[in-house]
Amino acid sequence: MMNEIYEPKIVAFCCNWCSYAGADLAGTGRLKYPENIRIIRVPCSSRVEVAMILRAFQNGADGVLIAGCHPGDCHYDTGNYHTRKRIHLLTSLMDFMGLSPERLWLRWISGNEADKFQATVTAFTQELRAMGASDKVRDLRCSR
Amino acid sequence: MRIGVFVCWCGSNIKNTVDVDAVTARAKTMPQVVYAQDVQYLCSEVGQSEIGQAIDTHRLDRVVVAACSPRMHETTFQKLMAAKGLNPYYVEIANIREHCSWVHTDKEKATVKAIDLVKKAVAKTAFAIPLTSDQLPVTKRALVIGGGIAGIQAALDIADAGYPVDLVEKESSIGGKMAQFDKTFPTLDCSACILTPKMVEAATHENIRLYTYAEVAAVSGYVGNFNVTIKQKATSVNPEKCNGCGDCVTKCPKKVPNEFDCGSSKRKAVYTLFPQAVPNKPVIDRDNCIYFATGKCGLCAKVCQTGAIEYQQQDEMIENQYGAIVVATGYELKVPDHLGEYAYGQHPDVITSLELERMLNASGPTSGKVIRPSNGKMPRRIVFIQCVGSRDRHDGNPYCSKVCCLYTAKHTLLLNEKFPGTESYVFYMDVRTAGKNYEEFYERARQQGAMYLRGQVSKVEPLGDADNRVLVRGFDGSLQRQVEIAADLVVLATSMEAQPNAKTLGGMLGISTDLNGFYTEAHAKLRPVETQAQGVYLAGVCHGPKDIPEAVSQASGAAVKAIILFNKGQVKSVPTTAMVEKDRCSGCMQCQPVCPYEAISQEMVVERVHGKERQRAVATVNRALCQGCGACAGLCRSGAMDLGGFTSRQLMAEVDSL
Amino acid sequence: MQSIMASITQSIQQTAAALLAAGEVDLVLGYTRGERPHQSVPFVATTPAAAAQLHWDPFCEKALAPYLMEESYQNKRVAVVMKGCDARALRLMISESRVDREKLVVLGVQCQGMIPREKLEAAAGEPLHQLTLTWQSEGVELTGRKGSQTLSYEAVLSPFCLTCQHATPAVTEVDQIIAGSGEKALVKGKNIPPKEAFSDIETIEKMGAEERHAFWMQQLNRCIRCYSCRNACPVCTCRSCIFDRENPDYLDAAKNQPAQHQFYHVIRAFHVADRCVGCGECARVCPEGIPLHLLNQKLIQDLTQHYGAFTPGVDEVPNPLSCAGAHEVDPFGKEAKK
């Protein structure tokens, strides 16, 4: 039992135009990655509320990935700049409060970057496996 | 609520990796799900009618489709919903193909994930709200950015369909790269002879307005209603007064390298780009003009008989409305000076193909004679090197520039024909001749004596002989040995590259660039002309390397897309717009500056408090402007701002379901 | 120094009485002496006579701005006494349509800084009721049973006031500045950098991640979800707070769930991140003594460090979280790649 690999749960918010498309392209290209990720589709990464990220952690996510268009490529012009700023501050505050900010990733993945999507999910899963189950910001009433 | 879940096999695409029976069985136990079924192909007519029947039989009011990506078939299922009298946004798609069956191999784990994805979709659809779209008017005027052959063709087609077009070109004349070419393959047509009539037609067309020496400075708005700011650079020459006599050009004392001839000739500080320029009015290049540098000179103004020279002219910002935009900004050629092995810039007799093209041109720097830049004599032996900066993952671009094989064949033919006795050697990696009559053309070049050597050149260096020739060392793969050729002239087929400002313009237009800087099309196979931004279409090499006929066909395709939009006369507004719950809204307006479309404004609502009427400020969303990004909802503190189709409640339900 | 407190008090009383007598306002919102020793509490004067009870001293810390949104203040002409931080909050409230500036007469007070009572008591080493205070120019002279001592103002002032750059409201924001005669401020021309005043932040930053977590768990787990911090905050001005929603359940106030406290306090800090005027009310009113202001101050420091200085309620809107652009730092691009 001790040697069993811990399989983390990853909740991802992917913007429809870049990262969700990148994930689709990974599918079309049959690029393999771990099954741990569950993608929630949002129009733009800036749609994601801080509350949703915290809620994902409460609900047992071991990692939260937010993926958006590269800076400058936002379908809505400026959305990912807002995301960048908000998540930057949130990461810092989580760090300050000892809430494992390393479990929250924001990455820029374009619609062409199927390989980057694959690499990101793979790397995130591996890091989270090494970290083990998250015990931060966890609402114990939520069943895993 | 009565939710129906439909699990697609997608033939074997899903079924092989996901246990669809298990997913269906599990779906039946999910909250509010009253019906679940698996179907071989949900997108097929059979599949669609299965869903339709189930909606009727089981009185479903929400549908979850577990199938391919919503980016693939969401509209298909939304149309079905509408046909069944249900709101199109009452269907939710669980992406169990691209995000599951295609990326995983372990069937057990993939099935668990597929169940999760269905559960997530069921949770989301339970909180779905009905959404509608409005019909918005379309401004029936097109903007074409870039006045090369692709831009000209697109402008002409749209104009011929009866719609006004503005054509913006950054140089002082339209024509683009094609104007610099001497002949075109595979017909050896004179490039100018086929291009200039089109240029003139564009300039004189009643529906086309030219903005030369102008650039797009800002773009806002959306399909059907773009607001574009065009920066009209000061030409310093009043086009109304100028009669194009050219006296100013003759008298101008300042000479600078002529970009049109790749710097191999000189032009004046006041100049027309080339003799057949359209419009054929000179402009003053302020960076090089003596008057603008020192305040002295003013010769051009003195000799101008019509008083057309206007030094005081200012750059002008022009704002226009457009319904559609065609991007035809073309390309640049790589300057190969960083590729040291080719000695470009080190030996004068190493030139690029475009420099040779200019020499071959009768109105070029040498009036059609091919010479060695080092001594002005005719070269006898010429070495062509292919793929300079193309198909080169280390120091250049990974892609094939597509046209070099053919224009090099053309060059060997032209040289052979004009100057019999010249020897042409071509170093190549592969010769790619996919195009109508291209293989035949290449065959002809070989038959006419061009020597093709398959192999890469390792070094180009001065031979050091009395003639100052160039030694080309390479490997001939057919002979399997090193070869050395003493050449009089070396011609480099340099790579086509995206415009350096492509990303900036793309940012303004809301379209993305690929890893090489070329604009990305909406779908690689089926929507090669459209972009992610509705109403913005691509034409020519700005989308990727192309030859002239391909660029022209894409331009016509882009034109037709614009024409379709104008003929329709209306666009559907985005249904998934932001919405304000006025009761909760404090009217703090923190959301207002976040909106990239200026869709949020403040309005006063009147409410009754203790029997008295009171005014209160709240935010309000202009649904015609909102494009549904949700940045405002992501920020709103009180949760008053929400986004249709992606409400906080829906997204939280998704999070909670996992 | 004694004279500046007295002269401001006198000036407030006179101005208030005049406004009420002239019928220019229906009420004056200010401070009066509290029941406890060295305590000032909010006070509403509706008659010229009552104006005599208005009072000013370094214990008028309660932020008055939030009262202006209360129902009983609507459709009334109100004069309000405002310190620098209050006025900043008021300016935000005005720009956020929460109050109608036209119905207000703002009496901006030249604030000398506020003294938290518990800090004073701790520094004095004697219960407050045993102390008589005399405002000297070099510090506060305390006379109690143990004798007399003078404490420097730096030693007793609120850390928020030590870092305050806007003690007196801007002339443009108020109808009248009430400036006393005599010494200008308790801390003369000295502004202590926030890092020094809030040295706890650095202390926490230097802890290990688990230690930080344990520290905040220990702090936040005391939260009883009374929402005093929210209610007292002059920039927590939403018409309806998301934490008052009954549904959905993720916003509940389950007191036995650390994650819910973390959720609430992260969100609360975020909601005022770029709007905090640094009045310190959140921490002051917390019945459990949770140092909530550290979260706000941390965010302010981050914003300042990475996005440039912005003073809410002083600088022009948009606030930092309402605008973002290409020029800003990208911590998630190449740097994030390992």
Could you give the topology of this structure?
The complex is a heterotrimer of chains A (144), B (658) and C (338).
Chain A: E1 10-15, H1 19-28, E2 37-42, H2 50-58, E3 63-68, H3 79-96, E4 104-108, H4 114-131
Parallel strand pairs in A: 1-2, 1-3, 3-4
Helix pairs in contact in A: 1-4
Chain B: E1 3-8, H1 12-15, H2 20-27, E2 33-39, H3 45-57, E3 62-67, H4 70-83, E4 91-95, H5 97-101, H6 107-125, E5 135-137, E6 142-145, H7 149-160, E7 165-169, E8 183-184, E9 189-190, H8 191-204, E10 208-212, E11 214-222, E12 225-232, H9 247-251, E13 255-257, E14 266-268, E15 270-271, E16 283-284, H10 290-294, H11 299-303, E17 316-322, E18 324-327, E19 331-333, E20 350-352, H12 353-360, E21 381-388, H13 404-418, E22 423-428, H14 438-447, E23 451-454, E24 457-462, E25 470-476, E26 481-487, E27 489-494, E28 496-498, H15 502-509, E29 536-538, H16 548-568, E30 570-572, E31 578-580, E32 600-609, E33 612-621, H17 631-635, E34 641-643, H18 648-657
Parallel strand pairs in B: 1-2, 1-3, 3-4, 6-7, 6-18, 7-10, 18-29, 20-27, 21-22, 21-27, 22-23
Antiparallel strand pairs in B: 5-30, 8-9, 11-12, 12-17, 13-14, 15-16, 19-28, 24-25, 25-26, 31-34, 32-33
Helix pairs in contact in B: 2-6, 6-18, 7-8, 7-16, 12-13, 13-14
Chain C: H1 2-21, E1 27-33, E2 40-45, E3 78-82, H2 84-95, E4 104-109, H3 117-124, E5 132-135, E6 140-144, E7 147-151, H4 153-156, H5 159-163, E8 176-178, H6 194-197, H7 199-206, H8 209-220, H9 228-232, H10 258-271, H11 281-285, H12 293-307
